[in-house]
Amino acid sequence: MATLVYFFQKLLQFFFNPEIMSDEDNFIQFNKGEKMGIWSSRGIVIPAIYDFVGFIYDGTFLVEDKGKHAYFNRLGEIIIPFNDIYDSYGDFAEGLARVRINDKWGFINKTGKEVIAPQFYFAENFCEGMAIVKNHDNLNGAINKQGALIINYKFSYLSAFKNGFAVFGNDKHGLINKLGKVVLPQEYSSIGDVNDNKLIVRIKEGNYYKEGVFTIGGTVDWNNNMDTANEKIRLYNAYKKEARLFIEKLYSDGCPCSYKRFRHYIVWKEPISFEDQELLFVEFIIFLEKLDANTFRCKTCGTIYTQAYKQYSISLWVLNVAIKQNGNYTDNGAAVLNPIPVNLGFKGYKLEKIEGTYFITSTNVVLNYLAEKS
Predict the structure, then answer these.
(1) Is the same domain home to 273 and 339?
(2) Looking at residue 12, what is its pLDDT?
(3) Same structural domain for residues 44 and 122?
(4) By CB neighbour count within 10 A (0-12 exposed, 13-18 middle, 19+ buried), where does 6 fall?
């Protein structure tokens, strides 16, 4: 069990602080009762007698005890004694740590000396010699290690600098250099990291995306990497449009709830994303009475449906739908068949559970199957 706990501690530290994984001492937080300390491959570095001990950053540990803060070095020695001069203390980065007092942020060095007076409405850690700071209008600029404002407050969003460049903008993004000069205009939906003077960019045109490689000081070399994703978007949009018209038609002849195949199609409780079912139900609830955030009632027959998005992995969310209460309808739809037609298909794991139960076909075949009468 101890080995398993150690493994997960190291894994978490790798994601949040890669410095630890490259450090020969392999520092690990540990607890003794309600107190914390630091252990390494050479033994206990900081005894577990403090309220909180952070991970190692820039060769230092931030330690909190009884409302005061101190900084220890990698040998477990105190380099900045416990104090409560500031309201908040941050981790060191590039030799400086953020501190806050009276809702203003500044920076101290590793001797505890205040080298940049608290004056910013927010400040991020230094990266490549620059720190992103905010003013009273919540606009971002950037300072150097002397506290001089190198890039004026004019960006609603500004990332930390990486390889000499920072991303700015919200819905659309651009790129600036360390002088604040725009090297890529604010017209891209996403911008990758700069490597070897090149970066990947994406732009949205209507409902679709283009991707290319931008060379700093040059132009974008567009490619077809987004073709598959764009085709998926096209299919989704076409399916949603057809599904809404289809549901309108069913309501003109009663209501969709009276069709066995329709009810069977939208009710779902599997660890697999059924894309046809999800889009069909999303369009269906537009016609329903909303009882609460996840409960809906058919205005025609009174059938009550519930929905719940369930997470099965980091990237897999599935829309589960159930019938909470059957309404006042008469079944007039045909019986459910096997296999069942689908258009968009499935995503996720354990797809073998439904193998042979469904087959891929066109949207028209799917909707005709759902509307077939007995």
Answers:
(1) yes
(2) 52
(3) no
(4) middle
